[in-house]
Design a protein that fits this description.
Length: 212
Amino acid sequence: MAIKIAIVDDHSIIRAGIKSVLAKHTEYEICAEASNGEEALKITQDYKPDILLLDISMPKLGGLDIIARVKRISPATKIIIVTMHKLGAYVLKALRQGVSGYLNKDNVAEELILALSRVSSGKTYLGQATAEYLAQAAKEPKKQPIEQLLNERELDILRLVTEGKTAKEIAEVLFLSRRTVENYKNAILKKLDLHRTSDLIKYSFENKIIDA
């Protein structure tokens, strides 16, 4: 019997790429796909997939917001995060919530089948880019993890600010009001003891919130 795979990503091109990779491997069957966290919960309820391939940054409910809920709906479903983020805060939080794998989108074509094989056999898989990032982070001077300072939504907004997006653009991406985005941004500045957007951008690069 084929292993049932569900794909959750808000970018149709990513879902298509994953389906293209899996099309060559008949031991895996794509049973459902979704574009946001709310839909992910529904397909988990309806299909009880063996493995859920889950993005982190999505509209409505992000990937990290729904891990525990997926586990409650379908305890047997294993989760592999498939994301562009190598940030240690995301990796550690996801692993602590019970995911079985963490894979960078840049390496999906090369690593997806290996990740699925290891996870379906009960093992954990960390993609090469993620493993290298964590290894490098372990060598750096110890400081309070960013995940203890900011929550997932604040991390998303910090990343989008660093990418040069305005409050209006961030609001559209995250399905929030502009005022809510501004409130989040002010909270981030306060938590990090910073004062301007330029300070946030500098902080992001220094702390590898996004790659330079």
